[in-house]
Specification:
The chain has about 200 residues and is mainly alpha-helical. It has one domain. Helix content is about 65%, strand content about 0%. It is built from 8 helices and 2 strands, in the order H-H-H-H-H-H-H-E-E-H. Strands 1-2 form a two-stranded antiparallel ribbon. It is globular and about 60 Å long.
Length: about 200
């Protein structure tokens, strides 16, 4: 893989094929766990762990998997890494695990992960699959970080639990409620669409 193609393979997940802002995938955890930055980052890292390792495994054994059971096989691989992630969070980061609730186990059915196995890892080399998974994971973490930062700052006046807005700021309670997640994501999607249109016009 040439250096240029490695860079392009990674960067596409940050913007051109960003799973949240461009493909609208994985919206359930995106909306549910971004009330605070710590939970947003934790979900992003857990998803990245599962996506990267499952992509490596699927790319490595793709020729051994019969076509008739490929989806079921991918789910078994994904579920194995989800179980590891869930148990590690419960063992070492229990408060975060409690805050994330059922959304870590639900990574098994996350469209981003299963979609990348079917669309990319099952058709490409281990190296390309790793870079693709790394890029998609980075894009997902970036999306969760942006969304959770906006919601926590406006909804609680804090960032990572530390007060940054001062006593003068009156928190926007709606931002930590489900409606705040939808509103914030809608605005961010609108900004992403605007940037895309401006970029296409300037080309």
């Amino acid at each position: 893989m040439a250096t240029k193609s490695i860079r392009a393979e990674y960067i596409k997940g940050l913007w051109d094929e960003n799973p949240v802002f461009r493909q609208l995938l994985g919206l359930c955890p995106t909306l549910a766990v971004t009330g605070t930055v710590i939970t947003g980052i934790a979900m992003g890292l857990a998803t990245a762990f599962v996506l990267i390792l499952s992509s490596l495994v699927v790319a490595s054994i793709k020729k051994l998997i019969p076509a008739q059971v490929r989806i079921a096989s991918y789910i078994v691989v994904i579920a194995s890494f989800v179980t590891i992630a869930d148990q590690v969070l419960k063992a070492y980061f229990y408060p975060i695990s409690e805050a994330l609730g059922p959304y870590v186990p639900l990574i098994v059915v996350n469209c981003i992960i299963l979609g990348r196995q079917e669309a990319f890892s099952s058709k490409n080399s281990v190296g390309r699959s790793f870079i693709d998974a790394l890029g998609m994971s980075s894009g997902f973490i970036l999306a969760l970080l942006v969304l959770s930062s906006i919601r926590e700052i406006l909804g609680a006046g804090t960032f990572l639990g530390y007060e940054i807005m001062g006593s003068w700021f009156k928190p926007w309670i709606i931002m930590i409620l489900p409606a705040g997640a939808f509103i914030t994501l809608g605005i961010l999607l609108g900004i992403a669409l605007f940037i895309e249109r401006k970029t296409k016009r300037s080309e």
